[in-house]
Amino acid sequence: MGNRTEQSKGYIPQKTGNGCPAVIEMLKTGMVSCLLDEDLTFLWGNSSFFTGLGYTQEAFCSLFNNLRQYYAVIPDEFAFIRQKLTQALKKNCFDIEMNVRLPLKEGGFSWAHLYGTIKEDTAAGGMILLAELTDVGEFMVKQEEQERLCQQKLQYFQFMLDTYEGNVYVSDMDTYELLYVNQHTCDVLGEPAIKVLGHKCYEVIQGRTSPCPFCTNNKLTEDQFYEWEFKNPVLERTFRIKNRIINWEGRRARLELSYDMFSTEYKLAKKDQERDALIRSVPGGLARVDGRDMRTVLWYSGGFLDIIGYTKEQFEKELHSQCTYAHPDDIEHVDAVMEQSKKTGESTMLEGRIVTRDGISKILMLTYSYVSGEDSWDGIPSYYSVGVDVTAERMEQARQKRALEDACKAAQIANDAKTNFLSSMSHDIRTPMNAIIGMAVIAQANLQSPERIQDCLNKINVSSRHLLSLINEVLDMSKIESGKVDLLSEPVSLPELIEDVMDVFRPLAAEKHQELQINADHVRHENVVSDQGRLQQVLVNLLSNAVKYTPDGGSVGLRVRELPSFAKGRGQYEFIVTDNGIGMSEEYIPHIFEPFSRAEESKTKQIQGTGLGMAITQNIVRMMNGTIEVKSTLGVGSEFIVAVSFELCEEVDENTDELAGLPVLVVDDDQIICESAAEILDELGMRSSWVLSGKEAVRRVVDAHEAKDDFFAVILDWKMPEMGGLETLKVIRKQLGMDIPIIVISAYDYSDIEEEFWMAGADAFITKPLFKSKISRTFHQICQSGRSDAMAIPVEKACFSLDGKRILLVEDNQLNREIAAELLEMNGFLIDEAENGQLAVDMFKASAPGKYDCILMDIQMPVMDGYRAAETIRALNREDAGSVPILALTANAFATDIGKAHSAGMNDHVAKPIEVGRLLETLQRWIR
Ligand code: ADP
Q1: Per residue in 192-223, is it b (16+ CB within 10 Å) or e — as a string?
Q2: What is the pTM of this model?
C-alpha cells in the first residue's frame, strides 16, 4: 500500500478524453477518481471500470455526475463510503481500503475491494480520491456464506447447550462473571438465567465468597477437558465435572459441563471407572478378538503387550494385530475352545502356549467369553479373553512333580531294600540259630557218646561264630547306613597296618595252601592319617573274600601302591586285592555292593557268608572319599581296587649315611618286587642290582667276589621256581662262606622254615611287602650290631606266659561273667569277680598293690558304670592305679565308644561276645 501511495503521490496523470490518464486507461482493473465534495463528484474512470459495471463511458457519464446519483439504488452504501472517507480525512490518513458494493447496469450489484489514495488536486478544485477497484464478488459471497454457517453453528451450539441434559455454564476467566447458564443448570440452581448471569460463578454455583481452586486451576487448557469429581456443599450432590478454556464472544472464559450422581451420565461414568478398575485388577492381559476371523485383536488392555513381548507398533506392523503369537501346535485346540464358548454361551478355559517376539515360549491360562454381534456395542461378534502367564508356576509344578516322583521312587526303593534286608536278615539269622538249637538237642540226646557230643559242639561253635559275624555286620551296616559312624583321624603306619592284616591272613591262606603275593609298590610315604580300624576292616573284608572264594592251592594277592598326588600334603593310594578264585558273573557284579546279595556260585558252592561285607566295605570307602572298583571273570578270578587319598604324616628323615654306596643284590622271581626293592635301596643311598632267579644270584655274587667287589648284602626271596631261596642260600654260603649278610624275604609265615634257614646261614628275615622303613631298619641293625645280632627281624613279639596272672573281672550279667571267668580260667588265669563298677573299685582299693595284672571292665552296669569305675581307679592314690591295664568289655565297639573308653583312662577294648583268641591276644599285649 505504501508503494502504491508513493507512486500515486508523484504521479501526474495524462488525461484521456474523459479526463482519465492514458496509462490508467490501459489497466485491466477498474480505476476511478472523484472529488471529495458533498456528492463525490465523478472526475473520470477507465474503460475497465465502466465495462465492469455494464456501461459505456458515455452512458455512465450521461447518467451520473456524482457517486450519490450512481448509488441512488443503494444509498446506504454511498453513506458508508462517504463516512469512511470523512473519517480518513479527519485522521489525516490518506490511504483507504474497504469492500464496496457496485450497482450494475442490469440491476443488482457486485462486490469490489477498493484501494484508494486521497490527495490534493488543484486542477480539479480540491481533495480528490483516486481508487482502484478489484472484483471480490466471489470472495464476498463465500465470506457471507461462512458467516451465515458460523452463525448457524453458534445457534446450534447454543441450542445444544440449552437442551443439554447436564449442567453447563460459562464464566469469565478474569472476572468470574457468569456469561451463560443452560436451562438444566437453572433448574438445578432453582433460579432463572436472568437472575444469575453477570454474578460471580463461585457465589452462584458454590455459595462461596471468593474464587474456588477449580476456577483458577492451572490444569485448565484450551486443548482438552480437565475432569474431576466434586461434592457441592450447597447442592449436596456429587458432580462429575469437565472444564476447559474457550473463547466466549471474545472473552477468555471457562466452560464447565457437569452431571450429578442422579444423572444417567454420572452412573455410566461410574460404571466406566469400575470397569477400568476391574481391568486393572486382572492379573494378566485382556484382549477382544474378532469373532468373525477369530484372529484379529480388536482391543487389548492390561499386560497384554508385556505378555506377548511386542510394543504397540511392533504388534500392529509385524503381526497386523493378529493373534499369531499363539504356538502353532496349540492353535487348533484354542479354536475349538473358542468355538465351544460360542456354542454354549459359557466362558471356556484352557492352557495354551504362546511364542513371544524374542522366541520365548510361555504357558498362559486363557479364558474365552463369546459376545454375539447383537449383544455387542459395535455390532461385531467377539471373544473377550483374559490371559495369565503361568509359565513359572507350571515349571515349578513340573519340578516339584519330578522331585515328588523321585522321592516316591527313592522311598519305594528304600522300603523294598528294608523289606529285603529284614527278610534276608531273619532268614540268615534263623539258619545258624536252627543249627545251634538242633545240635544242642542232638548233643543232649547223645550224652553217652563223647564223639557225637564233640561233633555237635564243633558244629555249634561254627554256627555261633557265623551268627556272631552276621550280627556284627548287620549292626555295623545299620550303623553305617544311619550315618552314625565317625571315622577317626589318627596316624596310621601302613607297614604296621599291612602287617596286622597279614597276621590274620597268613594262617588262613596257609590253611588253604594258597600262595600269597604281597607287594608295596612305590610307597614313599608310609605314615598317613586315617581310621586304622576301618581301613583294616576294608582290607580284611576284601582279603577274607579273596581267600574264601579261592579254592585250595589258588593264589591271593595284596598290592599297596602310592600314586603321584598333586595335592600338597596328601598322598594317593591304591590297595589292590586279587585272587584266581571262582570269580563272578558279569550279571552279578553290579549287585555286589547290595546288602545281603550273594552270587549264585557262592551259594551253590556252599561257601558261608552274609552278603554284607562288600556293602560295608563300599560304605567305609565312600566315607573316606575313596572309590572301589571290581573286575572279575567267572572261573578266572577277581580284582578289587580301592583308591583313596590320605593326608600324609610328617616323615622323619632317617640318617642313611652309614648305608651310602653299599652294594646290595635283590633276588626275586617277581620283577616288580625287584624293581621296587631296588628303588628303595637307591633311595637309601645304596647301590642296588637285581636278578630274577637263584642261579643268576649265585653267579652274580661269585663274579662280584672274584672282582673283589663283594655285595654288602643279598636280599633273597624264599619261594622261587627252580632254585628256591633255601637252595640258593646254601650254594652262596658254600661258595663264599658266611661273609655276606643274607636277608630272606617272605610273604608267608616263616616260623616253620625259620630253623632250616638259620641253619643254612640266613642272617635276617623280612616279611613282605618290602617297605622302605623295614629295609632301612634291617640294614641299620646289620651295620650297627654286626650280623649275628641282626637276627629275628621283624621284631618278634615276646611270648610271656599268662599262666597265674590275676584278673579282676567286672561284669553285671551273671551268665556272661561265668562264661568269661571259665574261658579265662581255662587259659590259666586267676579270676576275681565284681558285679558292678563300685564293687570293683572297692576290691581294687582293698587289694595289695600289683595284685591285679589286668582289669576287664564291662561298660553298662548298675550302681557305677565302667567309665566311672575306670576313672575312679585311675584317680586312686596308689602306685598301680595308673599302670594297671584296664580293658573295656563292650558290646558297642564303635569309634565313639572306643574314644570314650580311652578318655576314661582305659587302655583298650574287647568286643562282646568274647572271642577267646582275640581276648587272649589283647591280654597278652597289655599284661607284662
Ligand atoms: P559274603 O559274606 O557272602 O562273602 P560279601 O558282601 O563279602 O558277602 O560279598 C558278596 C558276594 O560277592 C559274595 O557272596 C560273593 O558271591 C561275591 N564275592 C565277593 N568277593 C568275591 C571274590 N573275591 N571272588 C568271588 N566272589 C566274590
Answers
A1: ebeebeebbbbebbbeeeeeeebbeeeebeee
A2: 0.49
